[in-house]
């Protein structure tokens, strides 16, 4: 083998490693969609809903949500007709975490102003593994229901 062939072989090997590191990666691949906030009654409290799709082979967890518009945002699930604060919600591998009216939701406490219909509330979703996602949440009518 001459020197040039050896170099070419080394480059091919490197390229192969890079590709397999990228294609076979097991990181969660998250995408947030279908966000909305029904126009709240007061600025004390508001709820919001969205879906996080995971196109990766690894599960993740939604661990916190932050925003400039509220003092605190907590993650709630609904058990029966009572809601409960939780530390995280699972985002299953090759699946989706769905938040929706009567189920999982975000609870905004102490809003700086009362969101009105057609406003957009921006939040950052934080996950156990994946990078944070910026999510623009449109404010809808109080009785808005998404299409199923
Ligand atoms: Cu709640």
Verbal overview:
The chain has one helix and ten strands. The protein has 148 residues and is mainly beta. The chain has a single domain (30-140), classed as Sandwich (Immunoglobulin-like), CATH 2.60.40. Strands 1, 2, 3, 4, 5, 6, 7, 8, 9 and 10 form a ten-stranded mixed sheet that branches. The chain is elongated, with a radius of gyration of 21 Å. The chain starts with a helix and ends in an 8-residue tail after the last strand. Bound molecules: copper (II) ion. The site of copper (II) ion has 4 residues, from strand 8.
What order do the helices and strands come in, and which of them pair?
Layout: H1 3-23, E1 30-38, E2 45-54, E3 60-66, E4 70-79, E5 82-86, E6 89-91, E7 95-98, E8 105-111, E9 120-127, E10 133-140
Bound molecules: copper (II) ion.
Short account of what is shown:
The chain is mainly β and 148 residues long. It has one helix and ten strands, in the order αββββββββββ.
